[in-house]
Structures are given as structure tokens and as C-alpha cells.
Amino acid sequence: MLESAAKNGVDKVTIMHGWIIAYLYNNQDNDIFQKNLESEFSISRSSVTNILQLMEKKGYIKRESVENDARLKKIVLTEKGMSIKSSIDKAIISNEQEFDSIFTPEEKQTFLFLIRKLKTGISGQ
């Protein structure tokens, strides 16, 4: 996925950055705060802080004050973040097309079944 993203012009976006960018993109109509990301991705406050600082440094996001509480900062995608989202989408489509060209529909079904089974087994659900 990272290799495909790089081919589409994404500069070493980590998987977590990609997930956060997609989450922010899909929730543009809502105010998203650090706390939302902590619970959505089940990661610690310090980890989210470090991730957001790096994303802000790279210009993917910005923090904006909220009208009713100056202490709160909502997290918003920048134009660069939106562009990265578009590049990630292209990489995903490219990967899916390559996946589809390698496997028959039956093999794809079996593969996805096994991946889900593995995920369930690992998570203990």
C-alpha cells in the first residue's frame, strides 16, 4: 500500500496518517477533536498527540479554535491533506485492481474469508 501510495505522489504517509486523513475527510461536517481520534482508533493520548504534531508539521492538518470554548481545537484537513486523501484513494483503487487481476472471484472470496477469520481469531471476538 505504501509503495502504491508513493507512486501516486504521497510522501511516506504512514498507515495511521492515512486512516486519520480518511476519518477527517469522511467527517468534515462534524467538529473532530483529538479525543475523537483517541477513541476511534483506540490509541493513547500521547500517541495521538505525536501523530497530529507530525501531520501538522507536514501540512496535512491544522487545528482551529472552536467558538464556544477557546481551549478546544478542532482538527481540520488542509488543502494538502485533501490532496493526500485523493492520492490515497487512487492507490487503493490501483491495489484493488491489481488484487482483482491476480485472483479469480472464488480465490478472492476465499482470501477475504480467511483474512476475516484471522482478524477475528487475533482480536478474540
From TrEMBL:
Ranges for the HTH marR-type domain?
A: 1-120
InterPro entries reported in the protein's UniProt record: HTH_MarR-typ, WH-like_DNA-bd_sf, WH_DNA-bd_sf
Keywords carried by this UniProt record: DNA-binding, Transcription, Transcription regulation
Pfam families in the record: MarR_2
Superkingdom assignment:
Bacteria
Q: Which SMART domains match?
A: HTH_MARR (SM00347)
Q: What is this protein called?
A: MarR family transcriptional regulator
Question: Which organism was this protein described from?
Answer: Ruminococcus intestinalis
What does the organism's lineage look like at the top? Bacteria, Bacillati, Bacillota, Clostridia, Eubacteriales
